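Severity: low
Component: inverse-folding endpoint
Summary: output formatting inconsistent between runs
Steps to reproduce: submit the following structure tokens with default settings.
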């Protein structure tokens, strides 16, 4: 049973992928990490040995600390964070309990190198519509909540990637791009090992809207309409991304929790 200083895998799984997800800190020692070099979605590795150094850099949001089995390393790290004024819990059962429950885990070697402030940096074409909003949403909700996105002229994406050590996506001839019938969002879901039923359903919706194959998903025309509407509302690509994050938050929650729900009006009216 969870205590006020711990969280169950079930509860954490419901938070991951939403705007209310806590910061996830993986403090497994190198030997344990080497046996399974994957991360719970959204987690970042830190050492328990220098918690006093990195604790002040954490944002104000709550933290969940993850070690191999949810014992001494996570308990001690979380206790240190709490005495530093940070709301911190441990994950019951640790990383091992999470993976034994067959929950998704991201291969660490697929996550791009982080900058000096611990953020992944990505670059793509300006004036995003569908894939270039959906992919940042996926990255911020499941890979790196602090990820930075640069929107530049199409002709300059590769040069900017090189000069600013950013990872290019959704352009031709790069790793993170369309593959055959798959759009970039599909590729990220698969490469990051995030193929859960809700994300697969959302991926089909994104692919259908992004590749003009609207018959693949009944919801795709609505996503296309909303995406094109957002692109007309905002001149600033980052403002559009902020609005798009809320759109995809809602779509993900529908895919996860509400696909069986219908709506009609008036409700409860007896037919004559």
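Observed output (run 2 of 3):
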């Amino acid at each position: 049973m969870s205590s006020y200083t711990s969280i169950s895998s079930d509860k954490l799984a419901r938070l991951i992928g939403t705007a209310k997800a806590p910061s996830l800190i993986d403090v497994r020692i190198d030997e344990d990490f080497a046996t399974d070099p994957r991360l719970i979605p959204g987690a970042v590795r830190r050492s328990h040995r220098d918690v006093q150094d990195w604790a002040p850099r954490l944002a104000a949001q709550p933290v969940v600390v993850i070690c191999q089995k949810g014992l001494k390393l996570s308990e001690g790290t979380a206790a240190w964070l709490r005495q530093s004024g940070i709301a911190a819990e441990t994950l019951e059962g640790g990383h091992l309990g999470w993976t034994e429950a067959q929950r998704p885990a991201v291969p660490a070697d697929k996550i791009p190198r982080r900058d000096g402030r611990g953020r992944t940096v990505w670059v793509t074409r300006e004036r995003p519509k569908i894939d270039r909003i959906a992919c940042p949403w996926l990255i911020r909700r499941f890979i790196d909540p602090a990820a930075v996105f640069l929107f530049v002229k199409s002709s300059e994406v590769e040069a900017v990637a090189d000069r600013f050590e950013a990872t290019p996506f959704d352009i031709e001839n790069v790793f993170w791009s369309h593959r055959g019938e798959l759009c970039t969002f599909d590729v990220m879901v698969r490469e990051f090992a995030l193929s859960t039923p809700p994300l697969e359903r959302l991926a089909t919706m994104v692919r259908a809207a992004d590749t003009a194959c609207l018959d693949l998903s009944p919801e795709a025309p609505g996503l296309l309409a909303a995406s094109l509407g957002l692109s007309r509302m905002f001149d600033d690509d980052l403002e559009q991304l902020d609005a798009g994050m809320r759109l995809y938050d809602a779509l993900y929650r529908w895919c996860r929790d509400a696909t069986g729900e219908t709506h009609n009006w008036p409700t409860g009216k007896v037919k004559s």
